[in-house]
Write a structure and sequence with these properties.
Layout lengths: L6 H7 L4 E6 L4 H8 L5 E5 L7 H12 L4 E5 L5 H10 L3 E4 L5 H10 L25 H8 L1 E6 L2 H4 L2 H5 L6 E4 L1 H7 L9 H16 L4 E4 L3 H9 L4 E6 H19 L4
Parallel strand pairs: 1-2, 1-8, 2-3, 4-5, 5-6, 6-7, 7-8
Helix pairs in contact: 2-3, 4-5
Length: 259
């Protein structure tokens, strides 16, 4: 048995536009609902959700039966977490709050076996089908997506240097934290936020580095993809549920004169 190619890794390397979604609801059942929606990629979030290894496992299992690549965002840039998630079968990782070239190097090294990195070796785990994938150790580095998340002005000022780190697959801009960092807490769509993002994004796009982000506006997401971004998440499962349930309740109540 051979390791299958990671569609997302190869798609963004070729500049193919990838539409995504952020997944924070727990468990495989909820993930299975989303998996049928045909997004190109999702992020299973462990940083800002109660997700743990067990719930992420269920989500990975749900998405493996779909065409969607399920990346995982660990709660920190921590080699122990990275090792466990890769052994669990995560096809790629989104590293939060990377602030320097050194931290980007550490993120990549956590995904690589020695001598190229520091990932601990286990002969039998879920990612290699419990020892059945004969070429796993030889090929996993080239298939694993490594996304580096920039969330502050200081990090964005180092965007080109961080993107040049060998093994980085793409750069992700976090508008919400960037907004907070530059004095616009709670307003990720502020023009100053996007001026800062675009100044860096244009340079990275010119170098051939895939860039991505998360926004909660479908039209704006499409604009970003048309204008040079390669991978954009256009919403979150939590926001979809909250807005949908609010709208449904308000619609029915207004129809009966109780709103």
């Amino acid at each position: 048995m051979n390791l299958p190619p990671n569609p997302f890794t190869h798609a963004i390397a070729k500049g193919e536009k990838q539409v995504g979604l952020w997944v924070s609801l727990l468990g495989g059942f909820q993930a299975e609902v989303i998996a049928a929606s045909d997004f190109d990629w999702v992020v299973l979030d462990m940083e800002h959700s109660p997700n743990d290894m067990a719930s992420v496992l269920g989500q990975l299992q749900a998405f493996e039966r779909s065409k969607t690549t399920a990346l995982v965002r660990p709660e920190a840039n921590d080699p122990v977490l990275v090792k466990r998630l890769l052994d669990l079968g995560a096809p790629g990782l989104v590293f939060p709050w990377v602030q320097s070239v050194g931290e980007a190097c550490a993120a990549v090294q956590a995904t690589r076996y020695p001598p190229d990195g520091i990932r601990g070796f286990a002969g039998s785990h879920r990612a290699n089908r419990f020892g059945r994938v004969s070429d796993y150790a030889a090929r996993v580095a080239q298939e694993t997506t490594v996304i580096i998340q920039l969330e502050t002005r200081a990090a964005i000022e180092q965007a080109e240097e961080i993107a040049a780190v060998d093994g980085v697959s793409g750069i992700f801009f976090g508008p919400a934290d960037i907004a907070a960092d530059i004095g616009h807490l709670g307003n990720p769509m502020h023009p100053e936020v996007w001026e800062l993002i675009w100044n860096a994004a244009h340079k990275l796009i010119a170098r051939g580095m895939p860039v991505g982000t998360l926004v909660l506006d479908a039209g704006f997401a499409a604009d970003l993809l048309r204008d040079g971004f390669t991978f954009v998440a256009c919403g979150t499962d939590v926001a979809i549920l909250a807005k949908g349930s609010d709208a449904l309740a308000a619609d029915v109540k207004s129809s009966i004169g109780d709103g």
